[in-house]
Amino acid sequence: MVVLMAIAVAIRVRVPLRPTRKGAVLSMSPNLLMLVLFYSLAVHMYQSLGDWPASIGGEGFSPLLIAHAGIATNYLVILLLLTVFIWPVTLLLCALVRRWRGLVSYLGIYGLSYAVSCGLMLLAPSGFLNWWWD
Predict the structure, then answer these.
(1) pLDDT, tens digit, 9 for 90 and up, residues 100-120
(2) How far is CA 2 from CA 71, 76, 83, 100, 118, in A?
(3) What residue segments make up the domains of the chain, in order of their start?
(4) Among candidate residues 69, 65, 35, 73, the one with its CA nearest the CA of residue 48
(5) Which residue from 6, 13, 27, 61 has the fewest beta carbons nearer than 10 Å?
């Protein structure tokens, strides 16, 4: 949905989609960091506990694992809130202000990388995903 919205806005306002490599990497970096935090937490959890957690919460977790889980969770929530509430407003502003229209392609790259990152998170082991979503 996010990606389709960016494409529709770009087509409607006739934005030239010529992003630079550096700008594209910068646009994807928040979502790449989300993936790194998510999967590093999965590895950390499995190595610390020897298996996936049997219950909801952090019972039996080391302080370092609790901190890691808190950082990953908070980052994911902040990124989700920014993507749901700030990203669409920014996209519309960039589409309406002629001088900012070149940024629409970078916002589209961000939206696409967010969707891909969310999809890649679903490939984690089911034991970890059960704990994560609970």
Answers:
(1) 888 888 998 999 999 999 999
(2) 25, 17, 9, 19, 12
(3) 2-11+21-133
(4) 65
(5) 13
